[in-house]
Amino acid sequence: MFTEVTLADHRREDFVRFELAIREIDEILECHLVSGGYDYLLKFTTRGVNHYQSIIEGLLERNIGIEKYFSFIVIKSPFIKPHYPIERLIDPSA
Q1: Angstrom distance (rounded) from CA 59 to CA 3
Q2: Exposed/middle/buried for 1, CB within 10 Å: 0-12, 13-18, 19+?
Q3: Is residue 53 assigned to a domain?
Q4: Which has the closest alpha carbon to 3: 58, 56, 64?
Q5: Is residue 5 scored above 70 in pLDDT?
Q6: At 31, which CATH number?
Q7: Inside any domain, residue 16
Q8: How many structural domains is the chain composed of?
Q9: Residue 94 and residue 87: Cα distance in Å, rounded?
Q10: Residue 16: which domain range?
Q11: Residue 43 included in any domain
């Protein structure tokens, strides 16, 4: 499950409060501060939609600054690369 999160306010302390609160949620595997139409992209792993929804509801109840969120259920992952192209990143001629 991927979730786009937009914060209500954008002061430094708002970002810190949000990040500290979600860091302790084991089901959130990744948190990315992004540019564009929302503030964060989160990657969740849960037992199912009901489990995910209970986590989201808990976050909303904690009043950590979430203005809105959009959820995307992963239907299929055609591939996930377990490595990075380190050689190409270090040496562009490779």
Answers
A1: 13
A2: buried
A3: yes
A4: 56
A5: yes
A6: 3.30.70.920
A7: yes
A8: 1
A9: 7
A10: 2-72
A11: yes
